[in-house]
Amino acid sequence: MNAFPLGGATTILDGGLATELEARGHDLSDALWSARLLADAPEEIVAAHATFFRAGADVATTASYQASFEGFAARGIDRGDAAALMRRSVELARLAGDVEPGRHRWVAASIGPYGAMLADGSEYRGRYGRTRRELRDFHRPRMEVLAESRPDVFALETVPDVDEAEALVDALDGLDVPAWLSYTVDGDRTRAGQPLAEAFAVAEHDGVVAVGVNCSAPDDVLPAIEIARVTTTKPVVVYPNSGEGWDAQRQAWTGESRLSPSLARSWRDAGAQLIGGCCRVRPDDISAIAEALLDPEG
């Protein structure tokens, strides 16, 4: 396992894995979301990861965002099989990295928030009524299992509030896997309403190697980078959504994508070192971002 790349050239992250799986014809309306395919169609997860790698991504983020012992149990999957499926998420991303022999690829094991397991949108609100200890006790077992497959890094992602961020960071102790910590934000605050300066300060834990935002509007990224740069010494990671809106009543996406290569260049120039996309960001988008960021004239 090579050291996760930080401190040098820009690292290109992948885009929306679930978006790509849906584009390949899979219905992910199940509460397990993309984690369902760990059991039902693992080869499709490999293919989706490989598509992002071919587009220029350096990192694959695993299909474990919505994977938890509780969520699998609700589907009748026992603890042993659930652990095997979580480990499989890392193994599948590793398999996809073989699409270009000779070029090392990295695997980020996705650790979604507690609200992702609830599958009711509460990851965009936070404040679940759970204590920091209860949240740590939820996250730690699955992090232990994922650590057994030796991912290069944990992606502690789409975190809506400081309480859960602190619980996740507590859960890192002793696992010997570095982590990036990324919040979902609304303007200059977490979804739960805390100032980003307070949120980013959590990243000063030794196990956290980068901090930033994901699953947020592209317009919120640059201000977040500026706050991170004056709040913490850690590298900055950013991977927003496309900027389209979701119409829950019509069950449809609305508006146009606001993600662009020029925005990605502005994030790099402001100090972000890890750049990619989240929901609704396709391989073609990652290809355009990679080309723009790696262009010496860009």
TrEMBL record:
<dbReference type="InterPro" id="IPR036589">
    <property type="entry name" value="HCY_dom_sf"/>
</dbReference>
<dbReference type="GO" id="GO:0032259">
    <property type="term" value="P:methylation"/>
</dbReference>
<dbReference type="InterPro" id="IPR051486">
    <property type="entry name" value="Hcy_S-methyltransferase"/>
</dbReference>
<dbReference type="InterPro" id="IPR017226">
    <property type="entry name" value="BHMT-like"/>
</dbReference>
<dbReference type="GO" id="GO:0008270">
    <property type="term" value="F:zinc ion binding"/>
</dbReference>
<feature type="binding site">
    <location>
        <position position="215"/>
    </location>
    <ligand>
        <name>Zn(2+)</name>
    </ligand>
</feature>
<keyword id="KW-0479">Metal-binding</keyword>
<feature type="binding site">
    <location>
        <position position="278"/>
    </location>
    <ligand>
        <name>Zn(2+)</name>
    </ligand>
</feature>
<dbReference type="GO" id="GO:0033528">
    <property type="term" value="P:S-methylmethionine cycle"/>
</dbReference>
<keyword id="KW-0862">Zinc</keyword>
<dbReference type="InterPro" id="IPR003726">
    <property type="entry name" value="HCY_dom"/>
</dbReference>
<protein>
    <recommendedName>
        <fullName>S-methylmethionine:homocysteine methyltransferase</fullName>
    </recommendedName>
</protein>
<feature type="domain" description="Hcy-binding">
    <location>
        <begin position="1"/>
        <end position="293"/>
    </location>
</feature>
<feature type="binding site">
    <location>
        <position position="279"/>
    </location>
    <ligand>
        <name>Zn(2+)</name>
    </ligand>
</feature>
<dbReference type="Pfam" id="PF02574">
    <property type="entry name" value="S-methyl_trans"/>
</dbReference>
<dbReference type="GO" id="GO:0009086">
    <property type="term" value="P:methionine biosynthetic process"/>
</dbReference>
<dbReference type="GO" id="GO:0008898">
    <property type="term" value="F:S-adenosylmethionine-homocysteine S-methyltransferase activity"/>
</dbReference>
<keyword id="KW-0489">Methyltransferase</keyword>
<keyword id="KW-0808">Transferase</keyword>
